[in-house]
Hints:
By secondary structure, the chain is α/β, with parallel strands linked by helices. It folds into two domains: 5-16 and 87-220, Rossmann fold (3-Layer(aba) Sandwich), CATH 3.40.50.1000; 18-84. It has helices spanning 18-31, 50-60, 67-84, 92-101, 114-123, 147-156, 170-178, 195-201, 209-217; strands at 5-8, 105-110, 132-135, 163-167, 182-186, 204-206. Strand 4 (163-167), helix 7 and strand 5 (182-186) form a beta-alpha-beta unit. Helix 2 packs across helix 3, helix 3 packs parallel to helix 5 and helix 4 runs parallel beside helix 9.
Amino acid sequence: MKYKAVIFDLDGTLIDSMGIWLEVDKEYLIKRNIPVPDDLFKDVPEGNSFKEICQYFKDIFKLPDSIEEIGAEWTEMVAQHYKTEIKLKSGAMELIEFLHSKNVRIGLGTSNSKYLAETVLQANDVIHYFASIVAGCEEIKGKPYPDIFLNAAEELQVDPAKCLVIEDTLQGVIAAHNGGMDVFAIFDDNETHDVERLKLEADFYAEDFQKILEKLTTSFR
């Protein structure tokens, strides 16, 4: 098989969690009696790191809290949802188990925090499959810069050219290509996604994990 490692994005890719984030963001502002704009994220490019989103909120809403305080509060609010509600997308487990059975290294490259990534992977009993977890809480540039995926490839000890990234956002797809990696895009029910651009930019576009599994299975025949 061409690929020696597969690096997954988390939110919107492995798990259907973007709605939870939006609700938590709203709750965070409501607790502070700050009106929630209808276009809360209109000026935020997809794929920013966790710290960059914290900075965005601090600047836009002139919050007295530090970036660390904002991030810590969000993290605990989201962690409760991740522990009890958020499941892997349909077909994700089958793909992970297939890759593991073929000795393909598995990693995670997410703009989310490492604590939350580990929390949801543990809750879904798949963390033991992941040899690398690189997160946006680290001192690296967020997507579309390739740093997250390149760091994951380094931890997996696999040449980036032999890594496949699975993403749901255009910025994530661009980040993978910027790192010299192939990338498969997967559908996520998010109105901010430009599906037509995703189809054009990605090396393969799939409606679900079953289609990705079928695509990769042919590589072993």
